[in-house]
Amino acid sequence: MDLFEYQGKQYFARFGIPVSPGDVADTVDQAVAAAEMAGYPVVVKAQVQVGGRGKAGGIKLANDAAEVRLHAGNILGMDIKGHVVKRLWVEHASDIAHEYYVSFTLDRSAKKHLLMLSSQGGVEIEAVAATNPEAIVMLHVDPVDGLSPERARQAVLDAKLDPAATDGATDILVKLYRCFTEGDCDLAEINPLILTPAGKVHALDAKVSLDNNAAFRHPEWDEFRATEELDEREKLAREKDLQYIGLEGSVGIIANGAGLAMSTLDVVNQVGGKAANFLDVGGGANADLMTAALEVINFDESVRAIFINIFGGITRGEEVAKGIVEALRRVELRAPIVIRLDGTNAEEGRAILAAAGIPETKLVSKPTMLDAARTAVAIANAKA
Amino acid sequence: MAIFVNENTKVIVQGLTGGQGRYHGLRNRAYGTKVVGGVTPGKGGQDVEGIPVFDSVADAVAATGADASFIAVPPKAAAAAILEAAAAGIGFVVCITEGIPAQDEAKVFNRLLRDHPGTRLLGPNCPGIISPGRCNIGITAGEIALPPQPGRPSVGIVSRSGTLTYQALYELKQNGIGVSTCVGIGGDPVPGTSFVDCLAEFERDPETRAVIMIGEIGGSAEEEAAEFIKASVSKPMSAYIAGVTAPEGKKMGHAGAIVSGGKGTAQGKMDALAAAGVQVGQNPTEAGELMAAIVAAL
């Protein structure tokens, strides 16, 4: 789960990482109130989960209430790369002497934590890596040992930050590592981390991605979940506890297993179609689960054909078939189903589907994944 | 021969008295696997359909001589269960648990590396391992897999995905090709056993004559495998990579299946494998067909 900047800053604050004083605002009046509290000059920042906010006009400096009104009014409702701005973060504008970059991630290849620290902040780190790689200090941290203040300090020295930043940056590195590990982040990034002319170091931005697998030990994440940017289809799928990702195409996909679901998307693409979604029904594809899955697919108005791709391992073919027959009784579908049922007890399953007397306009069974994909794509494209 | 397990492997099930552990533990035993015990703290002395239950892995090992463990416990308890098995001297640990926090997983991996180098972890979030006709640890439906056929070459399978592993087993069975061992390494960001670990074992295993590898988007395990294949694998291979059309920045069902910063794409992985001499199929069926042709030529 990706956090908005203001949520990331609130999360940072829990771990003692210094951030600028500020508040969120959903209206122009709230923005002015937040600005009065933070103290002028302030920065009015669009809260969207997409890069390039500044260039799009989503970050503005304001010296008084009138300027806050002007900018907040312009930014609220603004469309930034398809993300509509519904919320602002208004904070006291900082004087900046230097901008740095720091992040912690998991290096999947080394299987260790990775600290990246650079004296070149405020720009995309990928750009620094491409043009000036020696300006980035990379340090692997063994998760068993953690990051000691001594190693953090050495990294700061190696990165050649301004000497005035050494103590403050070291402290933030140690705290950010705690946020990353104890806070169960996939990514904890500060860009820029700034040094003020007064010699203070603090986080001017926050990019935090949380590991959903750790949600069970973080009840405080519930408030982040409430503001997560999901489309209506994804919200419905979450209510029904399904692994669903909304896409742009017209072939609705239901498959058992994440790998097979991904593969189904690929095969649909290979034969000239586009998937409307990714949906993994998982192991136990019973009537309730199939009904829930079909309801979510059916909610999507762009779906012109539904491709159900099941390979029975532990999942048994006859259970899937019974589930589909039952689901068809409960849900009036907007598009026909093309099913490929294979693996354990697939023949029994196909027999059940055949015996149910479902008309061909509603359900077609195909023997292979490729055949089924071709049929589903032909139906979807013909109607489009 | 098979890799990692064989007909003599003695298995205990951590979480045998739970729903998953009981269901799959009993299925594994019915397949012919030597399931010699179970572990559930506080339930020592009980039994599950004749399989004795112990309070700790150490007790179970002392009583049964088990050398492998099958872990089917919830995500909160999985990291401790893995380390308990390792501390009790278990050499091969299969963990099917899905949903373990990445921080726990990274810690366990490095703890094993440092303190228990004699323990191999398979998974987490994996379907397990099957050496058809000899040993099945995990959730694979054994009947889909064809054991090695006398007088015909056998194939090894290594995969990050459960259902695509079944698909591969099925494709080979359709073609009458036996499988030496099928290893599901799992879809999490820090798997205990990598493609490279499995390929090295398959290369050493005289029974395995060719290998199918099934990867997916995210991370660089397939690229690392390609480097290894180029340098150290002499046996012919086919492969399939899932997720060509996956959008960037989305976790595709598996915690580890994510393209980020333009890295970890399916195309990049396919190109790396093809450059290493692996025959890459555009879908799982094609990878199976390519393997059938490889075996026919052996």
Task: Give the ordered list of helices and strands of chain B.
Answer: EHEEEHEHEHEEEEHEHEHEHEH
What is the CATH third-level topology name of the largest domain in chain A?
Rossmann fold
Q: Which architecture of the largest domain in chain A per CATH?
A: 3-Layer(aba) Sandwich
CATH superfamily heading of the largest domain in chain B = Succinyl-CoA synthetase domains
User: What is the radius of gyration of chain A?
Assistant: 26 Å
So, the CATH homologous superfamily of the largest domain in chain A? Succinyl-CoA synthetase domains
Q: What is the CATH top level name of the largest domain in chain B?
A: Alpha Beta
Integer average pLDDT of chain B: 94
C-alpha Rg of chain B (nearest Å): 18 Å
- Return the CATH class of the largest domain in chain A: Alpha Beta
Per DSSP, the total helix count of chain A is 13
- How many beta-strand runs of chain A? 18
- What's the rounded overall pLDDT mean of chain A? 92
Largest protein-protein interface? A-B, 51 and 61 residues
Number of strands of chain B: 14
Count of DSSP-assigned helices of chain B: 9
Number of domains of chain A: 3
How much strand content do the residues of chain A show?
A: 15-25%
List keywords for this structure.
heterodimer; A: alpha+beta; Dna Ligase, domain 1; D-amino Acid Aminotransferase, Chain A, domain 1; Rossmann fold; six-stranded antiparallel beta sheet; elongated; B: 298 residues; alpha/beta; 2 domains; seven-stranded mixed beta sheet; 14 strands; 36% helix; globular
